[in-house]
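User: Hi! Is it possible to get a structure for several chains at once, not just one? Here's what I have:
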Amino acid sequence: MTQLLQQTITGALTGSVYAVVGLGLVVIAQATEIINFGQAAMGTFVTFIAWSLLLRLPYPAGFLLGTIVAFVVGALVERLVIRMVPEKERTGLNPLIVTLGLLFVFYGLTVGIYGGQPHPFPQPFAGPPIDLHGVHIGRASLYLFGVSLALVLALYLLFRHTRLGLVLRATAANRTAAELAGVPTDRMMMLAWGLGIACAGVAGMLLAQLLSLTPNMMDVVLVFAFAAAVVGGLDSMVGTLVGGVLLGVLQSLTGVYLGNVVRWLHLPFNIAQPQQYRDLIALVVIVVLLIVRPQGLFGRKRVVKL
Amino acid sequence: MSEKAGGEAGTSVCSRGEDRATASADGAHPMLRVRDLWVSYGKLRVLHGVNLEVKRHGVVALLGANGAGKSTLLRAISGLARPDAGSIEFEDESIVGQRPSSLVHRGLVHVPERRPLFADLTVEENLMVGAYSTRGRSAIATALERAFEYFPILKERSRQRAATLSGGEQQMLVIARALMASPRLLLLDEPSLGLAPLVVRDIYRIITRINREQGVAVLMAEPNVGIALSIADLGYVIETGTVMSVGSAAELRGSEQVRRSYLGQGAAST
Ligand SMILES: Nc1ncnc2c1ncn2[C@@H]1O[C@H](COP(=O)(O)OP(=O)(O)OP(=O)(O)O)[C@@H](O)[C@H]1O
Ligand SMILES: [Mg+2]
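Assistant: Yes, the chains can be modeled jointly so their relative placement is included. Here is the combined structure:
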């Protein structure tokens, strides 16, 4: 029982970071109708930059600067790369290929500049796990959860309660109408990409202090973030948050209990090491959801556009 | 050759002749001046050298059957469509190649056909998006009040999602949203489309009031000749991408050319 609780809580905490990356995907997908497969690679690249800054700067300054760098990288990529895709091709296969290109370019940049070896990332709240009646909660996990939640809340407030957020939503809903209403929609696209990659950068810095900093650290995260976004129908912020946490829990539980479930169902095979299957659960969720409920558990009517 | 493009009086209906519409013999600077405008979609040429002028505070109607190119002309003026050739001047400055949003800041606002609104936003939120180019809380509040004054029904509906409005209310909302940007020239594309005659009359009454009270010039595409000529002081008849005739409402009403433009293309009533 304690183990179940332990796994659930650990999973939920980690899941919050999937929600952050997922929200970044949603912000970008809403504004530009593009799924950014480069999200994780870009986030990791920015985290390496933040790491090199943190060698010289105190943590809060480095973290803040890292976030700003992420924003600028996102905005520049929109301006210099995404905008070069002809407007008519924006919804087809082309942008997908372009963002796959971003994945390889940024992965290559990371490995090229910083090398492939892992680095320890500074932890603002290092220390022994907190013990709650036998359930152990790592400080790094707790910190990750707190910052993730704060970021989700900040984005929610931005989108729901500011004029800028309103204009971003209008641009996402109907770009031509927004442009005709006087909104400089090209700048809104840059802003959306900036925000989206800022999410990825923050997530990268949070993950790096939990695990350690490697060029591949966010590969699996992207899949989970995408699954979280799909749970939200690619347009719901609340849905993405819930999706992220749910997926974190599912992932954690799969890693421990998959063997038991298989035995209990009398399936004709054995799971010796459930740990190896825990990352597959996100793909299962994506496939099942896209088939059964393409608008997501929370999405209203929009269908996932790829 | 001596066409007074602004003319309330003295403008004769002319058939054929692309160059007649431009010459403004009285020398008064028009607010909008379109000269020899060519526009195409891909390989399909839609406008063939259109000339047109709108005077300050004027109301000009674009008449013509479905597919004549009225919307395309408006789209080219507002920057949505890129012309192949020709010039467009707004308040004596060339505006070809400018983004629609920056033209809104300069006072040229396009209300496109089929009334695109932000369906999931509330009525008030739709209006607030329209106020993007308006700076300052009090200026925005004033603009909102003015919009509600012209369209009181929108005030009642202000917290409702735009998608839940009736067709007439949606048309009012897109016009009100344009009004939020404090335009000096409004381009209206078929505000009457699919609406009941009474609603159409209401909307055109309000458009007339906006023109008189705010001094906003209006250029509108309206295939319904009767409605258009009832409020416009000048009409341009467009047929397959060229201006076939120009004249005052009275002149066009009796014109053989207008009758042929419509009956010939079988697009008489909407
Ligand atoms: N996006 C487009 N791509 C290709 N062709 C187009 C496009 N928009 C319009 N056309 C063509 O250009 C021509 C003029 O269209 P336009 O919409 O300007 O006419 P209109 O006078 O506004 O007609 P209506 O009264 O039906 O609104 C038509 O033949 C139309 O088929
Ligand atoms: Mg039209």
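Chain A touches chain B through 18 residues (CB under 8 Å). The CA atoms of residues 110 and 165 of chain A lie 32 Å apart.

User: Great, thank you!
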